[in-house]
Fold these 4 entries.
Entry 1:
Amino acid sequence: MLRTPTGGAGDGTATADTRWVSIGTVLTRLREEFPEVTISKIRFLEAEGLVEPQRTPSGYRKFAPGDVERLAQVLRMQRDHYLPLKVIREHLDALARGEHPVLPSPGTQRDLGDGVWESGPGAATAARIGRAELLAAAQVDEEQLAEWESYGLIVAAPEGGYDAEMVTVAKLVADLGRFGLEPRHLRAMRASADREAGLVEQLVAPLRLHRNPQTRAHAEATANELAELSVRLHAALVQTALRSRLH
């Protein structure tokens, strides 16, 4: 359990020095329960709106006891329930409104729409859809899908069927096609994605090999966060490159 800063000596009241703490102190407290947490992780959660520390005039972060406990709640929900940050944020906002939302148990399935269901890490099987379901969800025909597969943009799972993420990929490929981008133009994106996935895998490999089962489970959440950061970086780089060419 996290320790809440105590009051000042002699008067029983909290002083500015004990009430507000630096990001380094936050890291030390969180690592009692979450040994794999890093300063980069805390900054990432701040960037995603999960916590809003104050800033000193010189720009340094200062965290209140409530900020530290909120970070611990976020990390617990990621570790124990494998929830995405959006769901965690909504849950915490509901708690702040005085509601009593119930967290889904690990492995609980969620409806993603378009007939696709997602299973958590504790589920018996991963989410899979058939070819007909993919065609219907993406609103494309068999010829288009076959062409996308020939360029490696859509890939069937080794066990058969398609991962739920393939619906998103198919929709994006179709949307880009309306602007004249053909599958052969998108092969470079696929190759880049494979390289980035390989880099993420290298970074989380030590977590997957850890003896602590909670640390191994945390590897998936870490991989998802790295993927989100990679996507944001890619978008920023594309925007920067476009601005340099259009101005």
Entry 2:
Amino acid sequence: MDWPALGVSLRLAALTSLLLIPLGLWLGRTLALARFRARPLCEALVALPLVMPPTVLGFYLMQGFGREAPFGAFWASLTGTTLNFTFSGILLASLVANLPFAVQPIQRAFEGIPGNLREAAWCCGLSPWQTLWRIELPLAWPGLVSALALTFAHTLGEFGVILMVGGAIDGETRTLAIAIYDRVQAFDEQGAALMSAMLLLVSFVTIGVVYGLSGRSRRRHGR
């Protein structure tokens, strides 16, 4: 087992989930409730990482993180370092690549809440903020947990985007998925099998959590 690579993967997955869930909550709820002409375009932009090849997304992010690019130059002026081949770079890349996994389950959860519940809450004197915390979030909780599980698991197994932006620097950008690839290249099938089994187990547990919450939500609503 490549423990430093596992540590990088876990730290990356935890930080990506921690940063994306609040953003996913805001953006998912906005897309679920708001009615504006540009909504399909916004939804398409959120979903774009799902259909783009990871190496293509990684290439564009790598270009955007370079010192010659506006964002990369801005980052360099603030920190004095570049984003490419750093943990900060793969973290930003992971936020972009995993955005749909955080937003879409939350959006679907809020879309499933009947609008008359919000109206009833307002008629009872609850403010929009109180309605969110006391009515909407408890009902959308399965979507939040699904978003957290999917974001964490997908980040843990991300390969193409991370490799393009961060390379494979030990203790910095070399994740468990990259370590598996390196073990295969070195003909260490036993080591690759052990690490692959760990990622397979995480993926299986994640899918089990998602489907379990979905089934519980359907039973609760009598579907």
Entry 3:
Amino acid sequence: MNVIIIEDEKPAARRLNRMLAELNIEVQQMLHSVEESINWFQNNEHPDLIFLDIQLSDGLSFEIFEEVTVKSAIIFTTAYDEYALKAFKLNSIDYLLKPIDEDELRVAVDKFKEYQPLQSNIHVNINDIRKLLINPVDRKYKKRFTIKVGQHLKIINIEDIECFYSENKATYIHTNSNRNYLIDNSLEYWQEQLDPEQFFRVNRTFVVQINAIKDIVSYTNSRLQLKLESYNNSEIIVSRERVKDFKHFIE
């Protein structure tokens, strides 16, 4: 069977590779980031099985599925707690807690061999996994930002933000007063701090607020174009892989 490992910690990837070799499983490829994985999937035949870490060096591994329809069974490798692990049970063959135990790895591989899902039956629901990764009772989302403007500090409430976007490796917020402000941290970081009932990641560059959407237009290749109340610096396109989830989001 064809197997790949997606893991940003190279020593951990090499260790898993050695453990699989002891089970007579040859790893086809080891990938270490979201960007590298997307490029690989776009240019190679998809494997039978992926060992997938959740947190990669440039973001959450779920972003891979936002750009590419991956047709592979998945065994998650994760350090998440027991509460979150039910997400992986619903969307994968199995999960392995780090550091990976040899016996648990053998059981997971045997489970895959027994199950052997058809690629056409494999579907990873990104939103379901995201929701199950957090306890909504305990979760507190970002309510406001404090931005330094010259010698002043400006408070921007979350409801006044139309979208978050990345540009030239920097992250910005755009407000309904048609202003852009540079903020710290990545788009991936802020996505996890935002209420998923209000904000949606439409592609790798934009997170938009539902109340700021003025119009939704059919676009080429089964995609959608969004028009916001004031933002017009560039086109905002819902990627083809995200259209179905986006339609659920706006319902």
Entry 4:
Amino acid sequence: MDVAIVKYNAGNIYSVVNAMKRLGIEPVLTDDAEMLQKADRVLFPGQGQAREAMEYLKAHQLDQVIKNLKQPVLGICVGQQLLCRHSEEGDVDCIGIFDVDVKRFQPQKHEDKVPAMGWNEIYDLKTELYKGFGNRADAADAAMGEALQHPYSYFVHSYYVPLCEETIAKADYILPYSASLHKDNFYTCQFHPEKSGKVGEQILKNFLEIQK
């Protein structure tokens, strides 16, 4: 399987490269439009500032390349946010796959820290991306079964996507929000599956197995 990872001015890309290698995949890290279009799967990860990322993507015409991809695409962290309509981070228009605006967390009490950082449970899981979750029988061992029934993933973010029609996983921090989205061939995770242990590994496996 040919897996391409979008190369742009965002951090955290190499941890995703390493996660693919742990699954036996040698991904290609590229900003070449033809290579991205030809790949069987495309990963769009990132950490960084939304406005700076969008300026880079537009300058290299990668925003349109990503928008027109036909194979399964997985946006991770800032990658999820950049696939939305608009972000409050830098007040910038984004790629627009998902017709929803990215908001900044607003602390409601003293213990509400921004950015939200650490492990958090994801729930109300839908689509093939979460195949096997919630079903202990699908796991190879008891520990994995428990992880699938009560999946925790690793988050680091100051901005969130509100709940919407395309939400396929939820998480709670200050308020319920979209931990994951899906529309057509586009899937996303606000959390970092590449840093989320067995749960994240299963999600990445499921992504690779999604039928076009």
